[in-house]
Design brief:
Layout lengths: L7 E7 L2 E7 L5 E7 L2 H25 L1
Antiparallel strand pairs: 1-2, 2-3
């Protein structure tokens, strides 16, 4: 059976926007970027986490 992966994320305020990073269970950066607003950065993180969950569910269905 497939175990879902866990992720952590960070948001950091920059001089001209917000940076975001998503990390896997080992602390490895799996995605990052920068957006003009905090809301846009949070939305980017949320999209990445949703797409990861969808990918994980698809992998589990193939097993």
């Amino acid at each position: 059976m497939y175990e879902p992966r866990s992720f952590a994320y960070s948001l950091s305020q920059l001089e001209n926007g917000w940076a975001w990073s998503v990390y896997d269970e080992d602390g490895v950066t799996v995605a990052d970027g920068a957006q003009a607003s905090r809301a846009a950065a949070q939305a980017a993180v949320d999209r990445m986490l949703r797409s990861s969950r969808t990918t994980s569910e698809a992998e589990e269905a193939r097993v």
